[in-house]
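User: For a reading group we're discussing how well predicted structures match intuition. Take NAD(P)-dependent oxidoreductase. Before you show the prediction, I'll give you the sequence so everyone sees exactly what went in.
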Amino acid sequence: MTDCTHSTGSVAIIGAGWLGLPLALTLQEKGIKVITSATSLDSVNTLEQLGLNACLLNLPHIENDSAVLQCQHLVICIPPGIRYGKSDYVAKISAIVHKAELAFSAVESITLLSSTAVYNGLDGEVYEDSALNLHAAKVAIIQQAEMAVLNCQCAIKTVLRLGGLMGYDRQPGRFFKNNRAIPNPESVINFIHRDDVIGIICQLLEHIQNKNNLHNPTNIFNCTAPYHPTRRDFYQKAIANLGLPEASFSKQEEVQGKLINSLYIGNLQYQFKYPDIIACLETQTNAD
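Assistant: Thanks. Here is the predicted 3D structure of NAD(P)-dependent oxidoreductase, as structure tokens, for the group to look at:
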């Protein structure tokens, strides 16, 4: 499991789903006080059966006495849901930020789990300070949610732009299990394993609690595995490990694709568990 210290303080995980739930369990196993949120009573009961403290939270509505506002640190794990036609992402994030800023709130830091999809429309090597293509609706929505956090009055605010999430039951080879042609095979991928996301969050919370200066003027961290294989190399291995028919690829249409790097992730002094995501495919396939 990912290591976290006992000094991290109380943490509210808003959105205890595929990523938020194991994050909450990891923090709690280390003796940290954790509050989780869910959008239904059934989900609250499920979280409580797992031994977690849970509360009902239906954003953008949030009560002044909500348990999440009594924690030192908020970690927002709500996916934008844009591909599913949802349009309330910015409203949800803004509601959390507004309540966290009020005098009765105990919140000292907010961490938003965002997405490297904010770089859609760019190519070449991109970093946290790269200019965004805000003409794309999805990019504009993600950026607005990020700015709601980055402009808030809380003492510490951080945005983690996560690459494509993989690990456990998310083996990307399954995206193409019907022998659908994989586009742009010579472009690189920008993925990260769930365990490494949890590790980065734990490391960040420790730095925040210890008031360490992370020397990051953007307050944004790009989070992708350091090794960026081509789509051809990665998906050939991913599909073969699933025992599916040989991968097929369409023509390379991008000139160079997009490689997402970070100017600041090294400041966290986090050691990746899966720096080479091709190498971890075999392990994860067998673990499913």
